[in-house]
Amino acid sequence: MITVLEPSAHCVYQRDCEGAADIPFAVRISSEFGGTIEARLLAEDGEAIGRAIVNREGTLSTGIREETLVTARLERVSVGTREGIWIAGGFERVPTGSYRMELFVRDGEVERESLCVEAVHVGDLWVLAGQSNMEGCGKLVGVEQPEDGICCYYMGDRWGIAEEPLHWFNESLDPVHWRVPEEELGTTVVCERRNRSIGAGLGLAFAKEVRRHEGVPVGLIVCAYGGSSMADWGPVRMDESGSTLYGALLRRVRKLGGRVKGCLWYQGEAEANERDAPLYAERLRTWVASLREDLRDSALPFVYAQLSTVHFMDANSSWWNAVQEEQRLAEEALAPAAMVPTVDATLSDIIHVGTESMKEIGRRMAWQALRIAYGRQAYETGPRPGVMRWNEERTLLRLEIEGAHGKLHDSDRVYGFSVEADDVPVPVKAAVSQDGRSIELRFEEPVSAVGLLRHGAGFNPTVNVADSKGIPLPVFGPLEI
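^ that's the sequence the OP posted. Answer follows.
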């Protein structure tokens, strides 16, 4: 009997800068035989592009037309072990694409057994990390549908087609993710698989949008954990890998070869308080720097979300807005990085983004990944506050908007802006300029003192400034005017 140890169906191997990756194979045969084992690698059209034939003495031969041959290698043949015969090798420099691997056991001309591993991909791996809005807490209604070539490395260290929900904590090999005591894992997993109705996230929409533009298979490595703080994500010693979020992330990435295309991050809700908000920016910079160092990629692309709205009744939203502003300012310090605004999202409960908005945020993250990781010049950052200019009377302030796709949505009444001068609110009306490139803020009386401008202040602001792709102006402020 033949058992395939590697590759797994629906796995994705991270390609290098030249668009190629090695695809390993490892098989075990449970009984003695005197023939050969053949591994074939076939493209989607059925053309065999690589072949390895191994006999029991450990001799390797290769074939197929020279112009299409992918070089095979043999690493180990163990004959006569109690488990049978072990063979490990691989195909080198396999181009970007989707393949299947066929394995045959033969005694002379007699084929004893065969096996096929479908959907083995060379493409790009993206890490999904953060807290519950990266985990996905949308209702499982109207979810993004699965697609060939979009795969997920689930928390049980298994590959599969990516389908909602992506995160299954109690199936993780790392105890840090378990939500119940170890002795309750079995019954809890069965119950969750039968009854779960929440868990739609952004990852699948992200991957599908990247694949639509780049034509490359995408694998998602899911690592998020609801309620986690920056302290919970702190870099740790590798001997603590199973008991810490960061260690679990590194263990899983290294198990897959140690290289990824980039990281998606949605976190910060846990930092929106008096104790942690002042430390957020430095903690985020440290975390990203540690990830890049540990993955040996100083230019690892980092795409992250700005906090969305929340239905809190607390009157003091200052710490929530403070984290949002630190996230806005972090793009340059974290480069190559991109922030995705989410202030226009609808929620599925008091704090979690709903399913439709999750899909939209996933696409926005993909557009930014296309810009910073794939070099697609057609994509901008999305609207950002730029230069501000007063008229001579200081009754009209023109705020230039940078990074927008096309013009801003036409609106003669713009919501979300607020101004203070000497700690007193100043009445202001805002509108999109005629050229669609700026916001005009009009005041009833001249603003003589230095003022503070905010956009999207509060827990649940009404905002409507967006560019032609529907990307909103992020929460920002206070900015001096």
